[in-house]
Amino acid sequence: MRILIVEDEKLLAESLSYLLRAKGFETDIACDGITGEHYAELGIYDLLILDVMMPGLNGYELANRIRAKHDSTPILMLTAKGELEDRIEGLNAGADYYLTKPFDGRELLACVNALLRRHGGEVDELRFGNTRLELAACTLVCGEKRQRLSAHEFDVMRLLMQAKEQILPKDVILSRVWGLDSNAGDNHVEVYVGFLRKKLKSIGSNVSIESIRFLGYHLEVHDG
User: Fold this and answer.
1) Which structural domains are found in the chain, ordered by start?
2) pLDDT tens-digit profile of 92-116?
3) What pLDDT was estimated at residue 51?
4) Lower CB density within 10 Å: C or N end of the chain?
5) Calpha distance 28→7 (Å, rounded)
């Protein structure tokens, strides 16, 4: 499960990230609303945690923009503003739950788990076209044919299947799979995309990984 934290207080954002990672979640941090919107558009997150008071776009504006694009990703909104009108504004903007600062870490985790359960976040596979990616087994499945994936192959394929038709930039794949501090380069992404293309073909999948020059990769379904 991957969670996006959009919070301009760096110390709080890092504390939230540490808390969630300790419970097995993957996290990314954006420190302003505009960057947060860019990350959210990738379509790879299971939950969004938004602060209200941020530069660029505030949490209400960001939630409104996300919902205007018919993105149903659950949103947990954090704010120091606890008045009834503020909570109503947050919920009307598209937030699923509203947590007032300061809060206990246990309450945050309970909210996160409840939202993921409510929105069907506890899944064991991803589907696209005639193909499934079994998360626990790290395996691509098409009909009766199966292909086990290596760790990096699995991480790349999962990102692509979560993004579906949306273009996933190469640098995003690189940072999510190999990490920002890694010495890996663009060629690593290209090599593993090549591996995945061969494995998709070997199981008779109608899913292809298409490259868009200077932009990135996305999935397409080819009938017949």
Assistant:
1) 2-118 (3.40.50.2300), 125-221 (1.10.10.10)
2) 788 888 888 888 888 899 889 888 8
3) 92
4) C
5) 11
